[in-house]
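Review session, final week

We close the course with one last complete record, chosen because it touches almost every idea we covered. It is Solute-binding protein family 3/N-terminal domain-containing protein, a protein from Haematospirillum jordaniae with 236 residues. Go through it on your own first, then we will talk.
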Amino acid sequence: MTSFRVPVILVLVLASHAARSEPLIFNTEDYYPYNYLENGKITGTSTRIVALMAEKAGVSYRLVTGPWQQSFSNALSQNNNCVFSAIFSEERKDLFKWVLPIDTMRMVIYKLKDSPLTAKTLDDLKEHTIGGYSGDASASYLKLRGFRVDETTTDSLNPMRLRTKRIDAWATSDFLGPKLSKEAGIDVEPLLVVSERPMGLACNKSIDDVTIKKLQDSLDAMNKNGEVEKIRSDKK
Protein backbone atom coordinates (compact mmCIF):
# COMPACT_ATOMS: atom_id res chain seq x y z
CA MET A 1 0.00 0.00 0.00
CA THR A 2 1.40 3.38 -1.01
CA SER A 3 1.26 6.10 1.64
CA PHE A 4 0.69 9.72 0.73
CA ARG A 5 1.74 12.60 2.92
CA VAL A 6 0.41 16.10 2.46
CA PRO A 7 3.16 18.65 3.11
CA VAL A 8 2.70 20.49 6.40
CA ILE A 9 2.83 23.89 4.65
CA LEU A 10 -0.01 22.86 2.32
CA VAL A 11 -2.10 21.70 5.28
CA LEU A 12 -1.60 25.05 7.00
CA VAL A 13 -2.54 26.96 3.84
CA LEU A 14 -5.69 24.89 3.39
CA ALA A 15 -6.64 25.34 7.05
CA SER A 16 -6.12 29.08 6.78
CA HIS A 17 -8.27 29.26 3.65
CA ALA A 18 -11.02 27.24 5.33
CA ALA A 19 -11.02 29.57 8.34
CA ARG A 20 -11.33 32.64 6.11
CA SER A 21 -14.21 31.09 4.16
CA GLU A 22 -16.34 30.87 7.32
CA PRO A 23 -18.62 33.87 7.88
CA LEU A 24 -17.47 36.38 10.45
CA ILE A 25 -19.67 36.69 13.52
CA PHE A 26 -20.66 40.29 14.19
CA ASN A 27 -21.75 40.52 17.83
CA THR A 28 -23.80 43.44 19.06
CA GLU A 29 -26.20 44.56 21.80
CA ASP A 30 -29.58 46.25 22.13
CA TYR A 31 -28.42 49.89 22.13
CA TYR A 32 -30.88 52.18 20.37
CA PRO A 33 -30.59 53.74 17.78
CA TYR A 34 -27.30 52.16 16.73
CA ASN A 35 -28.21 48.48 17.06
CA TYR A 36 -31.43 46.99 18.42
CA LEU A 37 -34.07 44.32 17.90
CA GLU A 38 -37.24 45.20 16.01
CA ASN A 39 -39.80 42.51 15.24
CA GLY A 40 -37.17 39.88 15.99
CA LYS A 41 -34.65 41.38 13.56
CA ILE A 42 -31.40 43.19 14.38
CA THR A 43 -31.48 46.69 12.91
CA GLY A 44 -30.33 50.24 13.71
CA THR A 45 -28.07 52.76 12.01
CA SER A 46 -24.80 51.03 12.90
CA THR A 47 -26.21 47.63 11.96
CA ARG A 48 -27.21 48.94 8.54
CA ILE A 49 -23.78 50.52 8.02
CA VAL A 50 -21.93 47.33 9.04
CA ALA A 51 -24.16 45.16 6.84
CA LEU A 52 -23.68 47.37 3.78
CA MET A 53 -19.95 47.66 4.45
CA ALA A 54 -19.53 43.87 4.57
CA GLU A 55 -21.70 43.38 1.48
CA LYS A 56 -19.64 45.87 -0.54
CA ALA A 57 -16.41 44.27 0.73
CA GLY A 58 -17.59 40.79 -0.26
CA VAL A 59 -17.20 39.54 3.31
CA SER A 60 -19.79 37.06 4.60
CA TYR A 61 -21.04 37.52 8.15
CA ARG A 62 -23.65 36.52 10.70
CA LEU A 63 -25.29 38.89 13.20
CA VAL A 64 -25.65 37.86 16.85
CA THR A 65 -27.13 40.00 19.62
CA GLY A 66 -26.78 39.64 23.38
CA PRO A 67 -25.69 41.48 26.54
CA TRP A 68 -22.83 43.88 25.87
CA GLN A 69 -20.35 42.15 28.18
CA GLN A 70 -20.92 38.82 26.41
CA SER A 71 -20.70 40.37 22.93
CA PHE A 72 -17.48 42.18 23.86
CA SER A 73 -16.01 39.02 25.40
CA ASN A 74 -16.83 36.97 22.29
CA ALA A 75 -14.91 39.39 20.07
CA LEU A 76 -12.00 39.50 22.49
CA SER A 77 -11.60 35.76 23.02
CA GLN A 78 -13.08 33.89 20.05
CA ASN A 79 -11.65 33.52 16.55
CA ASN A 80 -13.71 34.97 13.70
CA ASN A 81 -15.69 37.25 16.05
CA CYS A 82 -16.15 41.02 15.98
CA VAL A 83 -18.31 43.41 18.02
CA PHE A 84 -20.07 46.70 17.25
CA SER A 85 -20.78 49.51 18.00
CA ALA A 86 -17.58 49.53 20.05
CA ILE A 87 -16.19 52.84 21.26
CA PHE A 88 -12.53 53.24 20.33
CA SER A 89 -10.25 54.26 23.19
CA GLU A 90 -6.59 54.08 24.12
CA GLU A 91 -7.46 51.36 26.64
CA ARG A 92 -9.06 49.23 23.92
CA LYS A 93 -6.79 50.18 21.01
CA ASP A 94 -4.47 47.15 21.15
CA LEU A 95 -7.12 44.59 22.11
CA PHE A 96 -8.63 44.32 18.63
CA LYS A 97 -8.21 44.96 14.94
CA TRP A 98 -10.42 47.97 14.25
CA VAL A 99 -12.64 49.08 11.37
CA LEU A 100 -13.85 52.65 11.91
CA PRO A 101 -15.49 55.11 12.13
CA ILE A 102 -19.03 53.78 11.92
CA ASP A 103 -20.29 56.69 14.01
CA THR A 104 -19.23 58.91 16.89
CA MET A 105 -20.51 59.11 20.44
CA ARG A 106 -20.42 62.03 22.84
CA MET A 107 -20.12 60.97 26.46
CA VAL A 108 -22.19 63.30 28.65
CA ILE A 109 -22.71 63.48 32.41
CA TYR A 110 -26.37 64.16 33.26
CA LYS A 111 -28.05 65.23 36.50
CA LEU A 112 -31.65 65.69 37.64
CA LYS A 113 -33.02 68.97 36.37
CA ASP A 114 -33.72 70.25 39.90
CA SER A 115 -30.43 68.97 41.36
CA PRO A 116 -28.11 71.58 42.92
CA LEU A 117 -25.08 69.58 41.72
CA THR A 118 -22.54 71.68 39.81
CA ALA A 119 -19.26 70.84 38.11
CA LYS A 120 -16.88 72.83 35.94
CA THR A 121 -14.55 69.91 35.31
CA LEU A 122 -14.84 66.15 35.58
CA ASP A 123 -12.60 66.17 38.66
CA ASP A 124 -15.30 68.15 40.49
CA LEU A 125 -17.31 64.90 40.55
CA LYS A 126 -14.65 62.79 42.29
CA GLU A 127 -16.62 62.70 45.54
CA HIS A 128 -19.92 61.83 43.87
CA THR A 129 -21.44 58.55 42.69
CA ILE A 130 -21.91 58.33 38.93
CA GLY A 131 -24.28 55.83 37.36
CA GLY A 132 -23.28 53.65 34.44
CA TYR A 133 -23.87 50.14 33.16
CA SER A 134 -21.65 47.07 33.16
CA GLY A 135 -19.15 46.83 30.32
CA ASP A 136 -19.95 50.25 28.89
CA ALA A 137 -17.01 52.35 27.69
CA SER A 138 -18.19 55.39 29.66
CA ALA A 139 -18.23 53.44 32.92
CA SER A 140 -14.82 51.91 32.16
CA TYR A 141 -13.38 55.33 31.30
CA LEU A 142 -14.49 56.76 34.64
CA LYS A 143 -13.43 53.78 36.75
CA LEU A 144 -9.94 53.78 35.24
CA ARG A 145 -9.62 57.40 36.36
CA GLY A 146 -10.62 56.69 39.93
CA PHE A 147 -14.26 57.78 39.89
CA ARG A 148 -16.91 56.06 41.98
CA VAL A 149 -19.17 54.35 39.44
CA ASP A 150 -22.32 52.44 40.42
CA GLU A 151 -23.08 50.09 37.53
CA THR A 152 -26.33 48.41 36.60
CA THR A 153 -27.16 45.80 33.97
CA THR A 154 -28.87 48.21 31.58
CA ASP A 155 -28.67 51.96 30.99
CA SER A 156 -32.46 52.36 31.07
CA LEU A 157 -32.44 51.91 34.87
CA ASN A 158 -30.26 54.95 35.51
CA PRO A 159 -32.86 57.75 35.22
CA MET A 160 -34.88 56.19 38.06
CA ARG A 161 -31.71 55.72 40.10
CA LEU A 162 -31.11 59.45 39.72
CA ARG A 163 -34.60 60.19 41.02
CA THR A 164 -34.20 57.88 44.02
CA LYS A 165 -30.76 59.40 44.73
CA ARG A 166 -29.02 56.06 44.37
CA ILE A 167 -26.63 57.97 42.11
CA ASP A 168 -25.73 61.68 41.93
CA ALA A 169 -25.05 61.83 38.19
CA TRP A 170 -25.28 59.59 35.14
CA ALA A 171 -22.74 58.96 32.37
CA THR A 172 -24.21 58.01 29.00
CA SER A 173 -24.39 59.12 25.37
CA ASP A 174 -25.85 62.42 24.24
CA PHE A 175 -28.55 60.51 22.35
CA LEU A 176 -29.59 57.99 24.99
CA GLY A 177 -29.62 60.39 27.94
CA PRO A 178 -32.61 62.46 26.75
CA LYS A 179 -34.37 59.44 25.22
CA LEU A 180 -34.21 57.13 28.25
CA SER A 181 -35.05 59.86 30.74
CA LYS A 182 -38.08 60.92 28.66
CA GLU A 183 -39.30 57.31 28.52
CA ALA A 184 -38.95 57.13 32.32
CA GLY A 185 -40.78 60.44 32.78
CA ILE A 186 -37.78 62.01 34.51
CA ASP A 187 -36.33 65.42 33.65
CA VAL A 188 -32.55 65.53 33.34
CA GLU A 189 -30.07 68.04 32.00
CA PRO A 190 -26.45 67.83 30.85
CA LEU A 191 -23.85 68.68 33.45
CA LEU A 192 -20.64 68.08 31.46
CA VAL A 193 -19.60 66.88 28.03
CA VAL A 194 -16.70 64.53 28.75
CA SER A 195 -15.53 63.35 25.34
CA GLU A 196 -16.41 62.57 21.75
CA ARG A 197 -15.02 59.31 20.40
CA PRO A 198 -15.40 57.17 17.27
CA MET A 199 -17.35 53.93 17.27
CA GLY A 200 -16.38 51.01 15.09
CA LEU A 201 -16.23 47.29 14.45
CA ALA A 202 -13.73 45.70 16.86
CA CYS A 203 -12.44 42.36 15.57
CA ASN A 204 -10.57 39.48 17.15
CA LYS A 205 -6.87 39.61 16.31
CA SER A 206 -7.07 36.18 14.63
CA ILE A 207 -8.92 37.70 11.66
CA ASP A 208 -6.50 38.17 8.77
CA ASP A 209 -5.34 41.64 7.74
CA VAL A 210 -6.63 41.19 4.18
CA THR A 211 -10.21 40.84 5.44
CA ILE A 212 -9.83 43.81 7.80
CA LYS A 213 -8.48 45.94 4.93
CA LYS A 214 -11.41 44.96 2.69
CA LEU A 215 -13.83 46.08 5.38
CA GLN A 216 -11.92 49.30 6.10
CA ASP A 217 -11.64 50.20 2.40
CA SER A 218 -15.37 49.59 2.01
CA LEU A 219 -16.21 51.80 5.00
CA ASP A 220 -13.83 54.53 3.83
CA ALA A 221 -15.57 54.60 0.45
CA MET A 222 -19.00 54.76 2.12
CA ASN A 223 -17.88 57.64 4.33
CA LYS A 224 -16.49 59.44 1.31
CA ASN A 225 -19.56 59.05 -0.94
CA GLY A 226 -22.06 60.02 1.77
CA GLU A 227 -23.73 56.62 2.29
CA VAL A 228 -22.73 56.46 5.95
CA GLU A 229 -23.97 59.97 6.71
CA LYS A 230 -27.27 59.24 4.97
CA ILE A 231 -27.87 56.22 7.22
CA ARG A 232 -26.78 58.11 10.35
CA SER A 233 -29.34 60.83 9.58
CA ASP A 234 -32.13 58.29 10.15
CA LYS A 235 -31.64 58.41 13.94
CA LYS A 236 -34.91 59.30 15.66
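Two points worth writing down before the exam:
The beta strands are 24-28, 36-38, 41-43, 61-65, 81-87, 97-112, 129-133, 148-152, 169-173, 188-203.
The chain has a mean pLDDT of 91.
Good luck, everyone.
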